[in-house]
Amino acid sequence: MQSPISAALGMSPFGTISVPSPLMIGYAVFYLVLMLMMAVSTFNQRDL
C-alpha cells in the first residue's frame, strides 16, 4: 500500500528507524494483559 519511493527513503507511517527498547515492549505487554484482565472482569460481572 506504499510506493517504492517512500519505502526506499524510509518516509512511511509503517516504517521505523529505531528498534523499541525492552522497557517499551514490557510496558506494551503489561498494558495488554491489564486491559484484557479488566475486560474479562467486566464481562464476568454482567447479567447474561
What do these coordinates show?
With 48 residues, this protein is mostly helical. It has a domain at 18-48. 62% of the residues lie in helices and 0% in strands. It has two helices and no strands. The protein has helices at residues 4-9, 22-45. The protein is elongated, with a radius of gyration of 19 Å.
Features:
about 50 residues; mainly alpha; about 0% strand
> How many strand elements?
0
The outline comes out as elongated
| Number of H- or I-type helical stretches | 2
- Kindly estimate the percentage of residues that lie in beta strands according to DSSP: under 5%
* Mean pLDDT across all amino acids: 85
- How far is it from the N-terminal to the C-terminal residue, by CA? 43 Å
Topology order in helix (H) and strand (E) letters? HH
Largest sheet: none
Low-confidence stretches: none
Helical proportion? Answer: 55-70%
Class of secondary structure makeup: mainly alpha
Q: Rounded to an integer, what's the Rg over CA atoms? A: 19 Å
Give a concise summary.
The protein has helices at 4-9, 22-45. The chain is mainly alpha-helical. The protein has a domain at 18-48.
Secondary structure topology:
Layout: H1 4-9, H2 22-45
